[in-house]
Amino acid sequence: MDLRPLRIPAFARLWVGSTLAGLGGQLTVVAVMLHVFALTGDTFAVAMIAVAGLLPMVIAGLYGGMLADAFDRRTVALSAATVTFASTALLAALAWTGGETVWWLYVLSIINSAANSIVLATRAAIVPRLLPRELLPAAAALQGISTGVMVMAGPALAGVLVAVSGYAWTYTADVVLMLGLFLGLWTLPPIRPEGEVVRAGLESLRDGWRFLRRASNIRLQYILDIIAMTFGQPLALFPAIGAVLLGGGAITTGVLTASVAAGVLASSLFSGPIGRVRRQGLGIARAISVYGAAITLLGLILLAAWLGVLAPPAVGEDSANLPLIAAAAFALAISGGADNVSAIYRSTMMQSAVPDAIRGRLQGIFIVVVAGGPRVGALYAGSLATLTALWFPPLLGGVIIIALVGVLVRINPRFRAYDAEHPEP
Question: What is the CATH code for 4-190+200-416?
Answer without folding.
Answer: 1.20.1250.20
